[in-house]
Automatic annotation (TrEMBL):
<keyword id="KW-0813">Transport</keyword>
<keyword id="KW-0864">Zinc transport</keyword>
<dbReference type="GO" id="GO:0043190">
    <property type="term" value="C:ATP-binding cassette (ABC) transporter complex"/>
</dbReference>
<feature type="transmembrane region" description="Helical">
    <location>
        <begin position="12"/>
        <end position="35"/>
    </location>
</feature>
<feature type="transmembrane region" description="Helical">
    <location>
        <begin position="220"/>
        <end position="242"/>
    </location>
</feature>
<keyword id="KW-1133">Transmembrane helix</keyword>
<keyword id="KW-0472">Membrane</keyword>
<keyword id="KW-0997">Cell inner membrane</keyword>
<dbReference type="InterPro" id="IPR001626">
    <property type="entry name" value="ABC_TroCD"/>
</dbReference>
<feature type="transmembrane region" description="Helical">
    <location>
        <begin position="47"/>
        <end position="80"/>
    </location>
</feature>
<comment type="function">
    <text>Involved in the high-affinity zinc uptake transport system.</text>
</comment>
<dbReference type="GO" id="GO:0010043">
    <property type="term" value="P:response to zinc ion"/>
</dbReference>
<comment type="similarity">
    <text>Belongs to the ABC-3 integral membrane protein family.</text>
</comment>
<dbReference type="GO" id="GO:0006829">
    <property type="term" value="P:zinc ion transport"/>
</dbReference>
<dbReference type="Pfam" id="PF00950">
    <property type="entry name" value="ABC-3"/>
</dbReference>
<dbReference type="InterPro" id="IPR037294">
    <property type="entry name" value="ABC_BtuC-like"/>
</dbReference>
<feature type="transmembrane region" description="Helical">
    <location>
        <begin position="248"/>
        <end position="265"/>
    </location>
</feature>
């Protein structure tokens, strides 16, 4: 038995490796969620993941693929509907988020032969991580990080000043669609870690914590990864010793780190 087999043979270490893989990509992408104030948009895509799961069972495709396709379609629908300007964006987000979640739950109820762990899907099932999940997580993370590195300058400029970016010839709409694709992939890979209801928290909280200490965008993305790694490691340790749910424990740890950083920053000002 090789060292890798020994490591991957232990469910705790598989969970840790999976969580760290998600933290690596959730940090940088979460920064764009914070900068662009897209938290509610992230929630909408996360809620639509359950509809993707239901459709995956219905048409017999891999769960992660079904989630990505559904999230992308929801994102495109949001872009098209927002252009009509008949409803405010936050109203559209609320309609799509809760409708997708409800349709997913209703669809699953019509499939009695399909056994689904709803608690695991909604709140994560980190300790049931498999080798296939690890391949999916690290493959998705590598793709997203490569795409982020390639599009970094354009994404940053369009985030800071969209009109100026248009004048500079930056394809703002294409970059927005690329960002939506990356969000969809992150949701698909993070679904097993914290569940569809808590994915946005893993994107936002480490990035918001990093914002308090960062001096520039690159520094903030690096710190967001560090805080994400701390949240995953601390949450899993908390879950191991206190027998608490792994996904929510990760988010609770991220929140505690957020409170400590903000409290420390406030004390240093005084």
């Amino acid at each position: 038995m090789t060292i890798i087999d020994a490591v991957l043979g232990d469910f705790f270490w598989r969970a840790l490796l999976g969580g760290l893989g998600v933290a690596l990509v959730a940090g940088p992408l979460g920064c764009f969620v914070v900068w662009r104030r897209m938290a509610y948009f992230g929630d909408t895509l996360a809620h639509s993941a359950l509809l993707g799961i239901a459709l995956s069972f219905l048409i017999s495709v891999p769960l992660n693929l079904g989630v990505v396709i559904t999230c992308v379609l929801i994102a495109l629908a949001l872009v098209l509907l927002s252009r009509t300007r008949t409803l405010a964006t936050d109203t559209l987000l609320g309609i799509l988020a809760h409708s997708a979640l409800a349709i997913g739950l209703v669809t699953l109820s019509f499939m009695p032969d399909v056994r689904v762990d709803l608690t695991g899907l909604l709140f994560g099932d980190l300790l049931a991580m498999t080798r296939q999940d690890l391949v999916w997580i690290y493959g998705g993370a590598a793709f997203i990080l490569s795409l982020l590195a390639l599009l970094w300058r354009g994404l940053l400029m369009s985030t800071i000043h969209e009109e100026l970016a248009r004048v500079e010839g930056i394809p703002v709409e294409r970059l927005r669609l690329a960002l939506m694709l990356m969000f969809s992939l992150v949701i698909a890979v993070a679904m097993k870690i914290v569940g569809v209801l808590l994915i946005t928290a893993l994107l936002i909280i480490p990035a918001a914590t990093a914002r308090r200490l960062a001096h520039n965008p690159e520094h903030m993305t690096a710190l967001a990864v560090v805080f994400g790694v701390v949240a995953v490691s601390g949450g899993l340790t908390l879950s191991w010793y206190l027998d608490t749910p792994a996904g929510p424990s990760v988010v609770v740890t991220a929140f505690l780190v957020f409170l400590m950083v903000y409290a420390g920053a406030r004390q240093s000002r005084h």
